[in-house]
Amino acid sequence: MKLTLKVWRQKNSKAKGALESYQVEASEHMSFLEMMDVLNEQLIVEKKSPITFDHDCREGICGSCSMTINGSPHGPQTGTTTCQLHMRKFKDGDTIVVEPWRSGAFPVVRDLTVDRSAFDRVIQSGGFISVNTGQAPDGNAIPIEKDLASNAFDAAACIGCGACVAACPNGSAMLFTAAKVSHLNQLPQGEVEKTKRTASMVAQMDKEGFGMCSNVGACEAECPKEISIEHIARMNRDYVASIFGGK
Amino acid sequence: MNLDSKIPVGALGDKWTDYKATMSLVAPNNKRRLDVIVIGTGLAGASAAATMGELGYNVKTFTFHDSPRRAHSIAAQGGINAAKNYQNDGDSVYRLFYDTIKGGDYRSRESNVHRLAEVSTDIIDQCVAQGVPFAREYGGLLENRSFGGVQVSRTFYARGQTGQQLLIGAYSALSRQISTGKVKMYNRHEMMDLVMVDGKARGIIARNLLTGELERHSAHCVVLATGGYGNVFYLSTNAMGSNVTAAWRAVKKGALMANPCFTQIHPTCIPVSGDYQSKLTLMSESLRNDGRVWVPKKKEDAAAIREGKKTALDIAEEGRDYYLERRYPAFGNLVPRDVASRAAKVACDEGNGVAPTGLAVYLDFESAIQRYGKSAAHSQGLDESDQVLVKKLGKEVIAEKYGNLFQMYEKISGENPYKFPMKIYPAVHYTMGGLWVDYNLQTNVEGLFALGECNFSDHGANRLGASALMQGLADGYFVIPYTIGTFLSKEIRTPQIANDTPEFMKAEKETADRINTLANSNGSQSVESFHRRLGKIMWEYCGMSRNADGLIKGRQMIRELREEFYKDVYVPGDADEYNPELEKALRVADFMEHGELMILDALDREESCGGHFREEYVTEDGEAKRNDADFTYVSAWEWDDNDPKLHKEELVFDNVELKTRSYK
Question: Taking CB atoms and an 8 Å limit, are B65 and A59 in contact across chains?
């Protein structure tokens, strides 16, 4: 299949970027990133500068890849990261627009690569259970209801890619933050620090410059791990409790 | 060189306990004055950095990723072993120890492996306390499943994303230490060289990948947790960035590389489909709990499938060769990885492979769907003879157990695995070899430690499934925090190490020269094309089966390729900017030297054991033929550009009798 790609090129975080057009020949069995590899290989042969993009595991789990494809973070297929998106989802002759995540809190590093360190700082502000190595009781000491464990897992499945922020018209990181809050606050192990964790992570999220949530729901729709906005509701409840001291 | 493994005296089961009780400690007031550098933030690195931070050491941690949460441990699917015996099926620390020694084909150290089995139970407790959402039974207790090479169910798991959940646990512990200031985190920094001062590892030269700037970082000791070197084969299940550079730089400074030829080829990966591919995808070994491996009995059927004239569904039961069940009735589809991989290769080499390339076998869930479906119908009081209902219920059970894996398979292959059996083929997955370490996980270089896949210590010639996560976390949470004290307790009077001494300046200069050589190379071929060719050589001559002629030829080819690389590689961009192609070029350069060492090691080891299969050394029925009389040693290589030197650590087995590994 023959494709026209319009790719965002930006030399560094201070430079002004622009879309540039490329022609590339792809096979429908390729993943989107393999198609990008082919294009880069072509650019290198022509001694032009290849397009930078974050990627690593290419199995949809490390959360590195981050492209907005035709306006959708991770492209048109639901529940799928860019690395797992395959060219059979496109048609011969298509024009595809590829941009980096667009959000003030994720400055562009170069081309399609952005800086997502704000997410790390949100986790550092409370996305953990304070237990030192060696302090743990036996793993079976606290039985946890199967459905509860499964619910916590659904939240913990977040890969920290940032698609939720890129999808949100407000650039809000509510889904990311709520996923961690909900994962830990639901579990009996995380109960002790619930109030402090919620207040502290929300404060850090605001400090990083992420926007507010206005219940658009685009985050849930674009999340490659299909994390539900129910977790945001849970975080809001725990946040209110952290202010008014309720449970 | 005297390779002292420093194995403590005493009975096998008491060694670790006694050693811990009597080893030198560093008092809290002194820990505050000691600096530790940790490279890598996978399971081993993150857990080590977090735990040493908790203990009070000043830790600096480095990763080339944009966040510590992205390390490739995250992609481990199946599970983590622990000798909890929660299933009451006869498991014990000794049995886990024994299975690991046997699974490793008697090429690992008894004392290290026993310690691993001992601390395995603490790992599960620690992870549960951190909030890792392991799979649970309806009663709320932890669930287990079985993996290859064992006859008990000791594998804990979190759907098909166990590595992710364990890494997020370690990352959260690390994040907590970063927030307290005990760990300083350097993202997008790659270790370019090890700095030695007076014979001790005292720091590193790191490259800030965003600016290209070189930085000198000093510490009292350096811990490498930088994973394996599977990407030397170009195509592997490793992440794109996984590389040997940090370990290889240590080798260039005198550290020994142990058993480099022991690589694990995983039997269940999605087959190669085109030459644009740069990465292969694993399908978890847990699938072999319920999947049956087969190829058509008749070559004509296999050929018809390859040409697209037939599908798997056209082959009747009697036309199928369930070759693992046939050849290995005791373990069936759950034989260890090396055995399963070779059997797949044999089936395909004989002409019974099923993909257009001829390089694939089936992994079929129909029996499991039937079994689970009938059982579900029975327990719900429904009609067990209703085929449509049974299939529907059976598929639901399979979806609950392996849903995300089935989904991933469908996305990549475009085929529905609930309807057609999966097509799988072996691919490079893990490297048992790595830096030589003693019982303290210290390399032969004083003050340099290696953890996780980066070292050679626990898996011998073949790793059992769900044991990599176990070893990574064992080393990081429960071994290094103790054993590092054996070195640091002697350093309490050493002031902070300066980073502007001649040793640091020299290392920085050498690194800059090395980088500039590649950054300024203006040849005509891409880095990727060299890496691809290197991978082909390695796979052809040092892959699933090896022979002396091929290895000699392979070595020659690699040397020629290396020469061509420095003459004709083209690296776009500059050294003082964000330049992923330059990063890749530096890594490929190191892979070329390391690949040569792997070949030399494979050539030296004139026996077949575990993942190392030499065609010259086989039994009459085609199984691997080990040679205990001559090769019961760890090979530890000292690098030299022309003539690397082999040192041997003899392996002593006081507790386990060396037997021919049989899974029949």
Answer: no
pLDDT at B663 over 90: no
Note the helical H segments in B154-232: 162-180
Nearest to B77 by CA among B254, B283, B224: B283
| Euclidean distance between CA atoms A201 and A163, whole angstroms | 19
What confidence score (pLDDT) does residue B422 get? 97
Question: Is the model's pLDDT at B439 over the cut of 80?
Answer: yes
- What architecture is domain A116-244? Orthogonal Bundle (1.10)
State whether residue B161 is helix, strand or coil. coil
Residues 550-609 of B with CB under 8 A from A: 570, 572-573, 577-578, 580-581
Q: Name the more confident of B425 and B273.
A: B425
Question: What is the Cα–Cα distance from B581 to A115, expressed in whole angstroms?
Answer: 19
Query: 3-class DSSP state for residue B62?
Result: strand
Distance CA B150, CA B100 (A): 9
- For residue B621, the model assigns a pLDDT of 85
Residue listed under structure tokens 């830096």: B435
What percent of chain A shows pLDDT beyond 90? 98
Query: What gap in Å lies between CA B446 and CA B451, rounded to an integer?
Result: 15
The answer to whether residue B280 scores a pLDDT higher than 70 is: yes
Averaged pLDDT for residues B443-451: 98
Classify the C-alpha dihedral A216-A218-A219-A221 as positive or negative. Answer: positive
Helix (H, G, I), strand (E, B) or coil at B215: strand
B contacts of A49 (beta carbons < 8 Å): 572-573
Q: Give pLDDT, residue B147.
A: 85
> Cα distance from B187 to chain A (closest Cα, Å)?
9
Amino acid letter, residue A83: C
Task: Give the ipTM.
Answer: 0.98
**What are the boundaries of each domain within chain A?**
2-110, 116-244
Domains of chain B (ranges, CATH numbers): 15-262+432-488 (3.50.50.60), 266-428 (3.90.700.10), 509-627 (1.20.58.100)
Dihedral, CA atoms, A50, A16, A56, A80, nearest 10 degrees? -110
Confidence of residue A246 (pLDDT cuts 50, 70, 90): low
A208: number of CA atoms within 13 Å, CB side? Answer: 29
What per-residue confidence (pLDDT) applies to B651? 97
Interface of A with B in 42-81 (CB under 8 A): 43-45, 47-50, 52, 54-64, 77, 79-80
CATH of domain A2-110: 3.10.20.30
Neighbour-count burial of B117, counting CB atoms closer than 10 A to its CB (0-12 exposed, 13-18 middle, 19+ buried): buried
Cβ atoms of A84 and A59 closer than 8 Å: yes
Question: If you average pLDDT over residues B57-82, what whole number do you get?
Answer: 97
**Cα separation, A49 vs A22, whole angstroms:** 13
Give the tens place of pLDDT for each residue, B545-594.
999 999 999 999 999 999 999 999 999 999 999 999 999 999 999 999 99
